[in-house]
Amino acid sequence: MANTDNFKDRITQVIDTLGENKNSFSVKIGLKNGTTVGRLVKGDRQPSFEILQKIAVSYPHINLNWLATGEGNMFNHTYQDLENFNKEEILDYVIMNIEDFKSNPKIDALYRILKSLHNQESLENMHDKIDELTKLVDELKKK
How many C-beta atoms surround the C-beta of residue 11 within 10 A? Predict the structure, then answer.
């Protein structure tokens, strides 16, 4: 059974880091509504194997060991692993770790590199995510 001492804090951190809310996270992991996730966030329910499995399938980059026990890092991948990811995964990583990029001047270079990629199938999605990233960077620059 998972260590639930701070599970509610960790699941909340995951949901917030992914830019989701209880309902959208629930839908993305395959639940019909936010009731179960709401109970996990409140600490009223322990995570079942089925819920952890749904999270693992929907968000393979989330470290389930960390989620269940608090040991290790939230994500399974490090910055050095980015070279092995596809463009969509890189954008997801940047968005989920925007706090780490706040003071990094290389964010503009990353933005230009991602913008110049010529993968037509994911280009529309990339532009949407780049726009979101640009807005986040602009907000961060104002702080």
Answer: 22
